[in-house]
Please model this.
Amino acid sequence: MISQLFILSSKGDHLIYKDYRGEAGSDVIDVFYEKVTALTGDQPPVVMSHKDLHFVHIRQGGLYWVATTTADSSPFSIIEFLNRLSGLVKDYCGSLSEKAIQMNFALIYELLDEVLDYGYVQTTSSDVLKNFIQSEAVSSKPFSLFDLSNVGLFGAETQQNKVAPSSAATRPIQSSRDPGGKSEIFVDVIEKMSVVIGSNGVLMKADIEGEIRVKCYMPSCSEMRIGLNEEFSVGKSQLRGYGAAVRVDECSFHQSVQLDEFQSHRILRLCPSQGEHTVMQYRLSDELPSAPPFRLFPSVERDSAGRLLMYLKLRCDLPPKRSVSLLPEGAGLSQELSSPDQSAELQLQNRTVFWKIPRLCGGTQLSALFKLDVPGLSSASMLEVGPVGLSFELPKWTGTGLQIRFLRLSPVHPGPSQRWVRYVTHSDSYIIRI
Amino acid sequence: MQEWASQLCENRQFGSKMTDSKYFTTTKKGEIFELKAELNSDKKEKKKEAVKKVIASMTVGKDVSALFPDVVNCMQTDNLELKKLVYLYLMNYAKSQPDMAIMAVNTFVKDCEDPNPLIRALAVRTMGCIRVDKITEYLCEPLRKCLKDEDPYVRKTAAVCVAKLHDINAQLVEDQGFLDTLKDLISDSNPMVVANAVAALSEIAESHPNSNLLDLNPQTINKLLTALNECTEWGQIFILDCLANYTPRDDRESQSICERVTPRLSHANSAVVLSAVKVLMKFMEMLPKDLDYYGTLLKKLAPPLVTLLSAEPELQYVALRNINLIVQRRPEILKHEMKVFFVKYNDPIYVKLEKLDIMIRLASQANIAQVLAELKEYATEVDVDFVRKAVRAIGRCAIKVEQSAERCVSTLLDLIQTKVNYVVQEAIVVIKDIFRKYPNKYESVIATLCENLDSLDEPEARAAMIWIVGEYAERIDNADELLESFLEGFHDESTQVQLQLLTAIVKLFLKKPTETQELVQQVLSLATQDSDNPDLRDRGYIYWRLLSTDPVAAKEVVLAEKPLISEETDLIEPTLLEELICHIGTLASVYHKPPSAFVEGSRGVQHKRLPGSAGSGESVESPDTGSAAGVSDAPPAVIPSQGDLLGDLLNLDLTPPATTGPPPPATSGMQLGAMDLLGGGLDSLMGDESEPLGGDLGGSSAMGAGFGAPPAAPAASFSAPVSGGLDDLFDLGGGVGMPMGAYSPPKTVWLPAMKGKGLEISGTFARRAGVIQMEMTLTNKAMSVMTDFAIQFNRNSFGLAPAGPLQVLTPLSPNQSIEVTLPLNTVGPVMKMDPLNNLQVAVKNNIDVFYFSCQYPISMLFVEDGKMERQVFLATWKDISNDNEAQFQIKDCHLSSDAVSNKLQGSNIFTIAKRTVDGQDMLYQSTKLSNGIWVLAELRVQTGNPTFTVCLKCRAPEVSQCVFQSYDAVLKN
Model:
């Protein structure tokens, strides 16, 4: 049971405060802020206690979303709830920021009144809530699809590629009530990859966690059918059809998804509610269908002058014509890089070399030589070098090979409607040991 | 709009300076005045904007209560948006302005009748939130109507309102019969209503632990399970949490509930998943392990748990804390999933540490190579804390998986080669632990360790190194030089290092007396004369005296064999673990503390127990479970299994030592073989019986040999009190029911005649004049005469063994009973039993051998010298970690604290101090068990309250439960 709920800005200003059970005063807000800012890195921030009050909080959009409780309630449901709440607020206000919250506080109080009653979560579904919410959202900026100042996720090329920028979906859901509003739907396949490659080049661990996320801005969409690859299979043993199967170990679905056509035709049927939700989540461990996208060939040695030499060769094994942006990091410098648009810097406080590569084409190879002056370098300290971590973003590519075959909406919408299907793979933790 | 947004920004500056009241009031006046005018404006839009401004000020912590009447005036409107805003204001200020809040009541009552269900629900919801006593009486009628409203939205809001009202005025809710209406709502057609009714009832029931409010029976459970499928995800959580409190009647019911809960495991909401896991973990206890379904369920639990780890770090952390518990309870669930716990490079440190812990818990021979490779990799990372933990983890692996010890040691040596200061220090600390587990096995590494002596600057590492040098002084040629080098800065060292250094040098002296006399004198004088630390001084004096009076004894004491350490030291204590498993997914599972430790206040916190294990305690007492002839209906949890029992009895080595009989036959022939061996063993004991009996314990040497007990010394020292005890017995005659101070439970039937081929044994245990006695009544219900009685115990937790043979001198004729008293001692072989005070007994007569098990009250093991000094008590209490504390409640005990303390004294529970705080008497008590375990207790007695709270602290927390039972029994008899 949630006793109080409040939203703070990153500077600790009170934006929203609601007390559900009268168990503690509003002075605890400042207590919370003091505690959360005093946390050190190795203390888990999840649950903090003050007398007999427990704080559970998340950070979204640069804000603190905090719930307090006095009973032995479940931090899981509270965190989950706070995440949903921030999602709801984002759906309703268009974006998450201090300003958006301030301008829409009446709306947010109204939401808070409906989603929680006496600390019991009532509902977080925007479909149900739309029946109760009266206030209109105040948007800070009129939405424009071609507002390029916000293009981030997919790089600058997006416009030529005719891909909707990721900011396209940041607008209030209620604006779709207006007859003139654009009706659009976005289906994103997002995968996070974590890979460990041993010092001998052997792939030690490879996991992919993926999700299909739907952002719906359709005023009247009764049913949507998403077709996945037909050869998609779940579990270790089950194989379908011939050729390379698209396989995942486990998947789970949003409760609104109907799976009657899933077994036979791999079709997800759902009635999307307004806003953003994750329709399907899946996970694949160890047996990736393709080789990992990047290989690194490192050599680390000590030269005659007692300097540490690191020669790194990075190869991208993706099909050609795919470009990625990368940020590998290693273990203080003179540098020789293979092309001019890259950059490298030494970060002393965390003892890493940061090699930044704006773009890497599939099938190509880059190399870098770092020379480091390390005082008191011994052969034993060579053992301390490494590992190399890569962070990257691969658009239009999925590690599992999952594809959206088709996207059908019914009833067929008369006016101009747009459907977008986007794929992206991020690195979660891509480690190459030296 | 922009306007009051900018105002908000301005207000925030006030919010942070709320204490600056002077500044605050001066600006407020004008502003409030302005708002007042706007609130009373005729234009609806303007009114709405004004109320919004008021609420904006309220949010940032400004006091706008002066506007109360003006805002309430805006209440009567048909604009829902405005109404909501006004209600929001009301909820905030009603408490501080109760009189004015009454003004709003009429509107509320009216709104509750509004044709629009949204308004009805809004009114009833808001009224419940106005925590003013006066309002409650007006609330009852509208609430009653709303509970029966046709619209489910109103009903679900009303259901929650009952809980709100109950919190303000519980009596009123009961008088008005709202609870019954609420119970009816469990059968509502709308799942949302059901979920809220369940949530409300659960909360109300929590504050009345004994009420039967949430009457869970198979019918209601069925209803809940049906609603589960239709509810929203949040409703599912309420229902699952409620289900977790239910105890199924049998394994079939528990299986069917599990089957219906399992689909929730694939829910996208991780809170639903974890609540489902909780229900399954709990009900699984009741399923027989050989059931196919049990295996299926185990398999189904792994994937959702793994999926939880793909969430954000915060959720991952919570999930890991829970998985840590699950892994300790049922390691088999995740035994194949080791890889998912491998640390990611970019995990936050708190997630990394938690993963590391789980990795070690899952480490086994099968995966140890993989784990070690990972740990070695972690040990080269940048983060110092993590590296330390990783090195420590390698040590724990070595201790846990014996086969891997060698590989672990060589990995540690590799790490020491890196010469990274903190890695080396940490490695030395864990190598010390490895030496404690595997003595005399890896001394070859000592040379490498010694090379790094100079780089050690942390006390723990220095102490560890000194310990190693002292322990293996005879193998290190320059041990004396090494220790001497530490001695130079003796006074600058921390206590830990000083103590260790003292001990190490004394060890060295005992091993190489000739060369080190000077050194030992030096350290003794440093410790005793130049130090202010009492611990150090005392230890120094003890060594000094030992060395000067009896060097041989000193050798025995200082160089005694040390008990091996085991990996169990870092496991959560089982009863706590059981309780925490019942709280999976809650704060308790994150803190790893029982809820009573951090939830304050009136809500009675009940200790939850897992169903299976709670049942086993009772069923042991039923006498038929221990019978020998392979009774299949005995629950497996009670006595490990028939095979085990026989096996254990076999291990007693009943055959005379001279005959090196064949090894115990394996499985199939087990039972027969066991009988034979036992028969032989008992016969040989019978032979002893023909020797003179009485005080000299003729049998004891044979018994001693039979049990493999230590030779003559203990037997001799026991003969005096035992014979005294025997004399006493004869004086006492029957000896039953004589009030001797110590509590002795009434006799119960241990072996019914049906199982004993006509021999019925009932009995009890008592402690009389410092001697533990087993008092039995043997009754012959068969048609023939019984002779040749003998008795034998299995190994048990406290080494209880008969101090003499069973004295049935005359044959027992049909329908005759005889009272027998068997003195016991505690020098027998020890084996931990479950429950702790379980005793498995074999009795033989001319007909057959019979087995039964019984439980002895642990109070008979409380020795007479169990009174601790106050100071010692205080120090010990502090010294024992809080994890070893257990809390229990004794109900329905109408005794004053003095009477309590007298009564307990009779059973050797000594009250050391008494303190009275707020009418509550706190008794501090100590008890010593026959095996030297001290139990400290804090007993809280509140005058007029029949429920006492006992807090037990003990270094061996597993005895707490038994000790509590004794408290309970002693106080109630």
Observations:
- The longest strand of chain A covers residues 417-432.
- Chain A has three domains: 2-130, 184-290+397-432, 294-395.
- Confidence is low (pLDDT under 50) at residues 142-168, 176-180, 321-325, 329-337 of chain A.
